[in-house]
């Protein structure tokens, strides 16, 4: 590069930096980690900007990330709608409610789902305005280092340049593609395509029996699809407590989900109107299945492409995640990263907690995220929720423990609801009785697990829960009874 060219480049960079809009904190990404980090930083008195490129069907801003747009929120909307449909077709008669001529209006169901998403998008935009956060609609990326901070370029309909002392990366994750089977969102679907199928497929294939696969498989099974789930692992839900996973597997199969474990996926060929999947089953036999639609849910990868990491020397690990320490600090001073784009579970609520913690650390406070008490939930019916360690983990670590279980079959509220499937399970230290893990499969497990999270945060014992008065009749009584069962003194079973 000639001196003249170098001088011109330096001058252009200097000009862009001098014209940049100044902020204390710039957050790249407005998913759960990003928008919460922005709000908390604004509450702490910082001038804050948030950059996000998600767009709605009209091209307008749609903050909320994967969670709000094609993940947590729309999937729960469809799960609720499809559960209503199934209850109307198969459960209402038991309650003395006869439904004649039941039909499915899938278009209205999808419209409602989209409406729920928009309400959440608009809610986040309102929160930005309320907290005086500047929102920029476009793709944010590092443009370079600047005196006292960094410049962030915003690419989009209205390009801009921002400058901040602190930058929080919250760019989330993308669905992982299977080699040889790229998403076309017509026949081969990611989570996004699975939420927007225009007509109920007769034959639906799902590769991956994880959270997304089971939830989406459940939605379309309830609406009339024949659903086959192909899972590579030899066990069902290997991260879940084994006893709970076995109970869930039994219930899902009874509902009509065909779950095939230990499958080795081979060639996937998309035709004009269907998809053919070759695989080897658990017995080593070659199999072939033809589906009208195929959902691939084999995990997610960090969204760091186009972030401009090389521009500023930001370190990524071998898998493409932003490398951070325990405090979410990156390799660069005053650059932080949270959520799916860093190590740890890819959960919206984990991202939110990290977002709050980082904002507080920027302010010199002592933000904290306890990975040991992050709850996990699968929003199927029955729901599956857990926190802490599983029985197999405790065995592998050589930890002496006690276990107590209580079935919803013996719970009065569950009987009244008409859903007595599943159980609550407590695991406690054999000596101190401290709660080490709580695992639930059954109705409203996602709500019940919070009591266990609170208890574990305060290092409570199973006896503490057993001694607390729970309302009667309530599903939470099953939690109390499982705690009592740790000491073999359950009262109703």
UniProtKB/TrEMBL annotation:
Entry's localization field: Cytoplasm
Span of domain Pyridine nucleotide-disulphide oxidoreductase dimerisation: 374-483
Manner of cofactor binding, per the entry note: Binds 1 FAD per subunit.
GO molecular function: dihydrolipoyl dehydrogenase (NADH) activity; flavin adenine dinucleotide binding
Positions of the catalytic residues: 472 (proton acceptor)
Disulfide bond annotation, renumbered to this chain: 67-72
EC number assigned by the record: 1.8.1.4
Pfam families, per the entry: Pyr_redox_2, Pyr_redox_dim
Claim: NAD is one of the keywords in the record: yes
Binding, NAD(+): 208-215, 231, 299
Ranges of residues in domain FAD/NAD(P)-binding: 23-355
Entry GO CC: cytoplasm
Catalytic activity: N(6)-[(R)-dihydrolipoyl]-L-lysyl-[protein] + NAD(+) = N(6)-[(R)-lipoyl]-L-lysyl-[protein] + NADH + H(+)
Binding site for FAD: 76, 140, 171-173, 340, 346-349
GO biological process terms held by the UniProt record: 2-oxoglutarate metabolic process
Top-level division of the source organism's lineage: Bacteria
Cofactor(s) essential for the protein: FAD
Keywords: Cytoplasm, FAD, Flavoprotein, NAD, Nucleotide-binding, Oxidoreductase, Redox-active center
Misc: The active site is a redox-active disulfide bond.
Family label: Belongs to the class-I pyridine nucleotide-disulfide oxidoreductase family.
UniProt protein name: Dihydrolipoyl dehydrogenase
Organism (species): Massilia glaciei
């Amino acid at each position: 590069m000639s001196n003249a060219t170098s001088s011109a480049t330096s001058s252009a960079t200097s000009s862009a930096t001098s014209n940049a809009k100044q902020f204390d904190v710039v957050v790249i990404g407005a998913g759960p980690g990003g928008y919460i980090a922005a709000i908390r930083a604004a509450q702490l008195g910082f001038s804050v900007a948030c950059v996000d490129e998600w767009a709605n069907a009209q091209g307008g801003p749609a903050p909320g990330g994967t969670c709000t747009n094609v993940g947590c929120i729309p999937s729960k909307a469809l799960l609720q709608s499809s559960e209503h449909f199934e209850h109307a077709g198969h459960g209402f008669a038991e309650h003395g409610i006869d439904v004649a001529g039941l039909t499915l209006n899938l278009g209205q169901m999808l419209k409602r789902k989209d409406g729920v998403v928009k309400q959440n998008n608009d809610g986040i935009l309102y929160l930005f305005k309320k907290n005086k956060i500047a929102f920029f609609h476009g793709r944010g990326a590092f443009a370079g280092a600047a005196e006292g901070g960094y410049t962030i370029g915003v690419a989009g309909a209205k390009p801009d340049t921002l400058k901040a002392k602190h930058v929080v990366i919250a760019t989330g994750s993308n669905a992982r593609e299977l080699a040889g089977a790229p998403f076309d969102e017509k026949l081969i679907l990611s989570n996004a395509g699975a939420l927007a199928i225009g007509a109920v497929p007769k034959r639906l294939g799902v590769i991956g029996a994880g959270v997304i696969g089971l939830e989406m498989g459940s939605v379309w099974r309830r609406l009339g699809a024949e659903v086959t789930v192909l899972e590579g692992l030899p066990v069902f839900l290997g991260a879940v407590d084994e006893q709970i996973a076995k109970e869930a597997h039994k219930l899902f199969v009874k509902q009509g989900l065909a779950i095939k474990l230990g499958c080795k996926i081979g060639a996937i060929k998309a035709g004009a109107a269907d998809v053919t999947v070759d695989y080897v089953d658990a017995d080593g036999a070659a199999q072939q299945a033809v589906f009208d639609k195929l959902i691939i849910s084999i995990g997610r990868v960090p969204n760091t492409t186009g972030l401009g990491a090389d521009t500023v020397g930001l370190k990524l690990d071998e898998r493409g995640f932003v490398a951070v320490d325990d405090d979410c600090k990156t390799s660069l001073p005053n650059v932080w990263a949270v959520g799916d784009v860093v190590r740890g579970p890819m959960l919206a609520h984990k991202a939110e907690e990290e977002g709050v913690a980082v904002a507080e650390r920027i302010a010199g406070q002592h933000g904290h995220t306890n990975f040991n008490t992050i709850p996990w939930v699968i929003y199927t019916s029955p729901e599956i929720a857990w926190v802490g360690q599983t029985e197999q983990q405790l065995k592998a670590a050589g930890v002496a423990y006690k276990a107590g279980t209580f079935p919803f079959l013996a719970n009065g509220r569950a009987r009244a609801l008409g859903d007595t499937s599943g159980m609550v399970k407590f695991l406690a230290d054999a000596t101190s009785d401290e709660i080490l893990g709580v695992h639930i499969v059954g109705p409203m497990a996602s709500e019940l697990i919070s009591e266990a999270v609170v208890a574990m945060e305060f290092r409570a014992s199973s006896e503490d829960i057993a001694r607390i008065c729970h309302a009667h009749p309530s599903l939470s009584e099953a939690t109390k009874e499982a705690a009592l069962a740790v000491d073999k003194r359950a009262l109703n079973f």
